[in-house]
Amino acid sequence: MKTIILRTASNYMLPLLLVFSVFILLRGHYLPGGGFVGGLIASIAFVLHAFANGLGDTRQLIRFHPGFLMPTGLTVSFLSGVSPIIFAGKPLMTGLWYPHHLPIVGNLGSALFFDIGVYLVVLGVTLTIIFTISESV
Amino acid sequence: MIEQLVIYPLITQMLLAIVLMFFWSRIRWQRVVSIFGSLINLGVAIWLFVTVWQGGTLSIQAGNWEAPFGITFVADTFAATLVLLTAIAGVAVSSFSAGSVIPARLKFGFFPIFHFLLLGLNGAFLTGDIFNLYVWFEIIIITSFVLLTIGGEKAQLEGAVKYFTLNILASIVFLTAIAVLYGLTGSLNMADLASKVAAVENRTLVQVNALLFLVGFGIKSALFPLYFWLPASYHTPPSAVSAIFGGLLTKVGVYALIRVFTLIFEVDPFLQNVLLAVAVLTLFSGAVGAIVQNNIRKIFSYLVICHIGYMIAGLGMMTEMAIAGAIFYLIHDIMVKTNLFMMSGVIYKIKANHNIRKLGDFYADHPKLSLLFAIPLFSLVGIPPLSGFWPKLSLISEGWFTENFIVIGAIIFASFITLVVIIKLWGEVFWKTGEKLPEVRNFPYFNKLTNIKKTQMLAPIILLSIVSLYLGFGAGNIQNLAERIAFELMDNQEYINTVLSK
After folding, report:
1. Cβ-contact B350, B366 below 8 angstroms
2. What is the distance of C-alpha A65 from the center of its chain?
3. Using the beta-carbon criterion (under 8 Å), do B18 and A89 form an inter-chain contact?
4. Has residue B91 been placed in a domain?
């Protein structure tokens, strides 16, 4: 699969797909999208890069083991879930909202952080699975 | 923050699992974190239990959505008791796994997955939403599947395939039942369903729906025609895993059955007969299965099935005292079965064999250990005043009052066979002069282990034996607890009022 066309394209596709995945993540609160799809798209960016340039290059690009993203993402989601208990004395997963409207992001709330956590977990799981499989092939 | 107490057992287990994931490849740290975390969780569970015992049922609405629409978490005495038992078993098995499971298995995330399993169990006990219950069941299945297959031995994979196929089938049946229920009533909240199901006009459909739930939970709790996955899989993983499976997994099914048939569905005479027939056949087939086995863990697997029958018989008789008997048996069974599987693990570490025909000399070589192991074994049989005796007493006397003589016969038969099986086991493993077993190379024999590991393996057995002894000698307290739970289950107004905050 190491053709020059794919390799050149993948260099441009990687940042594009990552930006697109963040867009999908942010869009997800009211419209189709969200952390899960966003995470899948982000992992496609890295998988494409791995196909074009080889697994070693992609690993160097990411620097740490993608499995590390799983507990990180879980921590983000977990903190977003328990934050209402700690800060507001309300039940688990009650939405806490920053009262002012922000540009691009829209309204900032604890639900967004939950989605970011899901995004990271999905990215971590997918990359771990695909890297492990392609290593053993 | 105190009013959120219901959710804390879930939060501690989740946090523990996440922290353990950060220590993925540092097994030493995982052992320490898991044991101390389980102790903290035990503290939280005791706190929840005491609060519920003193102040009555607690509930919270996740996401602050009003009751019939959001997901509710409820801790009544039943749920709080089971969370407490899960926490005790969790401490025991966590310590036992730290001592007994080999590092090659621990490297693949044994401890994080174990705590996710406990999270699923706590969630299933505390949730007040039938669909949420399904989600917790899924968490339990997925984590238990991983625990079954970690290590990747051939026998393990074979057992896991059977386990997974039948349990996924149970989930599908359960999910279908939920869909039908939602179609009939338009609600998923269990407290809300309690009144709505009673108002449905199409009684036939409600009956069919109840049977769907019975099949779904019946597979999970290994009832008579649907139990084949259990003896096929429980003897394959490490003993620590078998311990938590044998102690708690089937009991979640029993918990769900008791909850659904006391809260949501009214048990009519037809359903009552089905439950009693299933209970009798479960008692019978489990007992007969146990008597022909030679592998220690297979014997215990069949005894798990057999003793599920007692609880279902209690549920089937549907009187307050009978349910109290079933609850008492549930409490006793969780502690004893967990302990027995851990005990089989210690025997295996000492002798490197599971076959009772080949084992022997245990009493001559290890008299103190034998006396320790006698406690769970004879509690299981129910020799008075040990813990298995008291619930059977309530069940038999209640069977007499409700004139279910076949059930009494089955209970006595199963108790008798259990006695025979345990005596056979005692004679073969502990008293017989066994043949000299060949030394297995590279096997981590018990006497080669460090003292810390020996303590980690024996301390949980001592802990659970003490709990078992308390269940027997403090039977009055446990009977009070069981009667209070049965009262709350039969008169579910407090549960409904707390959830719907009328």
Report:
1. yes
2. 15
3. no
4. no
Are A76 and A116 in contact by the 8 Å Cβ rule? The answer is yes
Q: Residues B120-133: pLDDT tens digits?
A: 999 999 999 999 99
End-to-end CA distance of chain B: 22
Q: Tell me how close the Cα of A71 comes to any Cα of chain B, in angstroms.
A: 6
The Cα of A47 is separated from the nearest Cα of chain B by a number of Å equal to 24
Q: Please give the helix or strand (H or E) that residue B71 lies within, else none.
A: strand B71-75
In the predicted model, what is the mean pLDDT of residues A124-133?
Answer: 92
Sign of the torsion angle spanned by Cα atoms B368, B372, B378, B384: positive
Q: Are B74 and B495 in contact (CB under 8 A)?
A: yes
Strand partners, B295: B355
Listed as own residue / partner, the contacts of B271-277 with beta carbons closer than 8 Å and 24 or more positions apart are B271/B207, B271/B210, B271/B211, B271/B214, B272/B316, B272/B317, B272/B318, B273/B316, B274/B211, B274/B214, B275/B214, B275/B312, B275/B313, B275/B315, B275/B316, B276/B313, B276/B316, B276/B317, B276/B404, B276/B406, B276/B407
- Measured torsion, CA atoms of residues B266, B269, B274, B280, in degrees rounded to the nearest 10: 110
Asked whether residue B34 is assigned to any structural domain, the reply reads no
Query: Higher-confidence residue: A105 or B496?
Result: B496
Which of A65, A69, A87, A93 has the most B C-beta neighbours within 10 Å, making it the best mutation to test the interface with B? A93
Tokens, residue B373: 């192991």
Distance, in angstroms, between A6 CA and closest chain B CA? 35
What's the pLDDT score for residue B399? 92
- Whole-number Cα distances in Å, B323 to B274, B300, B314, B328, B382: 16, 24, 5, 8, 18
* Domains identified in chain B, total number: 1
Q: Which of B11, B24, B64 sits opposite A82 (nearest CB)?
A: B11
- CA distance readout (Å), B84 to A38, A114, B50, B256: 39, 29, 10, 17
Number of residues in chain B: 502
Q: For residues B11-23, b (16+ Cβ closer than 10 Å) or e, as one string?
A: bbbbbbbbbbbbb
B432 within some domain: yes
Q: Where are the beta strands (DSSP E) in A22-129?
A: 97-102, 106-109
At A91-109, the pLDDT tens digits run 888 888 888 888 877 778 8
Instruction: Please indicate, yes or no, if residue B169 is contained in any of the structural domains.
Output: no
State the residue range of the domain holding B340: 267-494
Per the CB < 8 A criterion, the answer to whether B115 and B34 are in contact is: yes
- What confidence score (pLDDT) does residue A1 get? 60
Question: Crossing angle of helices A55-62/A35-53, nearest 10°?
Answer: 130
* Subunit contact B4:A91, Cβ cutoff 8 A: yes
Q: Scan for tokens 């619930």, then name that residue.
A: B391
Is-above-0.90 flag for pTM? Answer: yes
Nearest to A91 among B14, B15, B62 (CB): B62
Q: CB-CB: which of B1, B7, B21 is closest to A74? A: B21
